[in-house]
Amino acid sequence: MNGAAAALARPARVRPGEVALWAALVAGVAVLPQYALLANEIAILALFALSLDVVLGYAGIVSLGHAAFFGLGAYAAALFAKHVHPDPLAGLAIASMLAAALGAACSPTIVRGTDLTRLMVTLGVALLLYELANRFDGLTGGADGLQGVVMGPLLGRFEFDLGGRVASAYSLATLFAAFVAVRRVMHSPFGWSLQALRDNRLRTSAIGLSVNARLAAAYTLGAALAGAAGALLAQTAGFASLDVLDFHRSADVLLVLVIGGAGWLYGGIVGAIVFKLVHDLLSSITPQYWTFWIGAVLVVLMLVGRDRIAKPWTWLRRREAPR
Of 41, 112, 190, 228, whose CB count within 10 A is highest? Predict the structure, then answer.
């Protein structure tokens, strides 16, 4: 029994290479402040991808409407700052809780349906929220967006600057905290049971585990993380629009997981870095046709294989696998 517990706990240990990776991310922002805004976008996208990885990569719940939670978090944080209190951390907490509540409300339908049902339900929820945000333009600003969102200083001391240095530090710190929490959850007995039911739901239920309760908990956790990502976007941009609920948000985060790899916590971070850098590079060269080249990259990725292209970080994936 002790040997099994040690084998399960081994992948959860923090390794020097991981510390170096996070230190490099922080140092990159400090050394290259001109790229702080890009780093902020990468951190937000990575957190959004991490939230979908919990739902899709670990629980096996397919979703085409994950932007529903992202958009709800963005509007909740913006409205909270504009009408209640401008404190960023309070707005982040409120947005995460509201997104988690929506995820919990949707989970009974999600956990009982087939993959096709889940695709339609998740997409339908996102489209419904999009139309509601557009319809109640007196509250959300409609097609013009919610403007005039002014955030207070972070921790009462650090004002958000135009260069994005405080914003990038805030987003990276939130991403790191969420990553540590999710890593701990996924390397717990609950996390291993999620992976077991993802691989074989029938066998998992046969040994007496509550499949629906675990799926609902994973879906709620993923929704909360997506809401936090949306809140970060609204707080650091000072703006929330219908774009945060658009279908392309769900599509982009799926592409990020395809690039980085689902079912691997670093997949969202690696995928977000690659996606945003390629997006930034290609859109500067061909603003109208950058999506074509993104598609070409995905085709090459599928034909050649991610492991052959991504050998520098495959050691991280091997380390996370149980022995």
Answer: 228
Q: Which H or E element spans position 76?
A: helix 67-83
d(CA 160, CA 88): 10
Residue 276 domain-assigned (yes or no): no
Contact 75, 240 (CB under 8 A): yes
Dist CA 154 CA 159 (whole Å): 6
Q: Residue 265 above 80 pLDDT?
A: yes
Domain of residue 25, residue span: 15-246
CA atoms within 13 A on the CB side of 226: 33
Q: pTM value?
A: 0.85
297-28-52 Cα angle (round to 5): 50
Tally of domains within the chain: 1
**Domain membership flag for residue 310:** no
pLDDT digits (tens, 9 = 90+) for 186-222: 888 887 877 777 776 677 667 767 778 888 888 999 9
Q: Is 219 domain-assigned?
A: yes
**49-83 pLDDT, tens per residue?**
999 999 888 888 888 888 899 999 999 999 998 88
Kindly give, in sequence order, each residue whose CB lies less than 8 Å from that of residue 304, ignoring residues fewer than 6 positions away. none
Length of the chain: 323
Kindly report the average pLDDT of the chain as a whole number.
80
Burial of 59 (0-12, 13-18, 19+ CB in 10 A): buried
Any idea of the CA torsion for 100, 106, 109, 113, to the nearest 10 degrees? -60
